Backbone:
C-alpha cells in the first residue's frame, strides 16, 4: 500500500529522535531532582519536588562552574573574532589578489587539514611552555585564534562566487582593496560568515583535550573539563553532574534556536553532523 513506505520512514525517524533526545531529557530531569529522590526512584521519574538546588550549588559551591562558563565563553569569543578577521583577510587574498605562487600556497596550506589534531597537542604544549603561557587563559586562545584552513577554504570559494563586476565598479570609484573587502565582499558574505561563526563557537565550546592538557587546577578550567572533573570530585552525586551537563547545553541550545536557519546551512556547507 502507498502509506506503508512513508509510515515506515516516519517510524524510523521517530525512533531515531527518541534515542537521540532521551539522554538529554534524562539529564534535564535529573538536574532538577533532589538527590534523595534520584537515589530511591526511577531515573525517569519526574522531579518531585522541582528544585534549583543543584544549579545553585554548582554555580556558588566549590566546583566553581560559573567561572568555568565565563572562561569558556570569553575564550570562544576571542577565538571567534581572531579566526573571522584573519580568515576573511587570507581568503580574500587567495580569491581575489594576484601574487606569485598563490594557488600553490593555498593548496599547501589546505593540506594541513589532513593532519589529525591530536598530533599537534605535544608541539603546541611545548610552545606554550617555552613561552611561559602554560596554565594560563592565553594558552586556551592563542593556538586557535588565527585563520583555520577550513574557514579559509569556505570563504575563498564563496568570495570567488561574488561577481567581479561589482569589485571592478568599486575600484573605478576609487575604492582600495580594504574598502572593497569591508564595504562589498563582507556584507555579501553574511551567510557564510554566520555559518563559520556557528561552527567555531560550537567547536570550541565543546573542546576538551587541549584545555585538559594545557591547564591544571580550577582557575582556567573550561566547561567540558569542569564537567568531567565533577564525576571524581563529587563521586556519586549525579544530580550535580547532570546539572552541569544541562548548564553546558543551554548556551548551545539558545544559539541553535536563534540561528536555526544558519545552523542547518552550516551542515550543508560543512558536510558534518
Residues:
Amino acid at each position: 500500500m502507498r502509506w506503508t513506505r512513508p509510515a515506515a520512514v516516519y517510524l524510523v525517524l521517530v525512533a531515531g529522535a527518541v534515542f537521540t533526545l532521551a539522554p538529554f531529557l534524562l539529564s534535564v530531569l535529573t538536574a532538577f531532582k533532589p538527590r534523595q529522590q534520584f537515589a530511591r526512584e526511577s531515573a525517569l521519574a519526574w522531579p518531585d519536588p522541582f528544585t534549583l538546588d543543584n544549579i545553585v550549588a554548582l554555580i556558588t559551591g566549590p566546583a566553581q562552574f560559573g567561572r568555568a562558563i565565563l572562561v569558556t565563553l570569553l575564550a570562544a569569543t576571542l577565538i571567534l573574532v581572531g579566526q573571522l578577521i584573519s580568515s576573511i583577510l587570507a581568503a580574500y587574498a587567495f580569491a581575489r589578489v594576484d601574487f606569485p605562487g598563490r594557488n600553490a600556497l593555498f593548496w599547501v596550506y589546505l593540506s594541513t587539514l589532513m593532519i589529525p589534531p591530536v598530533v599537534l597537542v605535544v608541539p603546541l604544549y611545548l610552545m606554550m611552555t617555552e613561552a611561559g603561557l602554560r596554565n594560563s587563559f592565553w594558552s586556551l586562545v592563542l593556538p586557535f585564534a588565527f585563520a583555520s584552513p577550513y574557514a579559509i577554504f569556505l570563504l575563498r570559494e564563496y568570495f570567488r562566487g561574488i561577481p567581479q563586476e561589482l569589485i571592478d565598479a568599486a575600484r573605478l570609484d576609487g575604492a582600495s582593496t580594504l574598502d572593497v573587502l569591508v564595504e562589498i565582499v563582507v556584507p555579501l558574505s553574511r551567510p557564510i560568515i554566520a555559518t563559520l561563526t556557528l561552527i567555531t563557537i560550537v567547536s570550541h565550546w565543546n573542546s576538551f583535550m587541549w584545555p585538559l592538557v594545557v591547564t591544571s587546577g580550577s582557575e582556567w578550567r573550561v566547561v567540558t573539563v569542569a564537567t568531567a572533573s565533577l564525576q571524581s570530585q563529587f563521586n556519586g552525586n549525579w544530580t550535580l553532574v547532570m546539572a552541569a551537563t544541562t548548564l553546558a547545553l543551554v548556551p548551545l541550545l539558545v544559539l541553535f534556536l536563534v540561528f536555526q536557519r544558519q545552523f542547518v546551512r552550516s551542515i550543508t556547507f560543512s558536510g558534518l553532523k
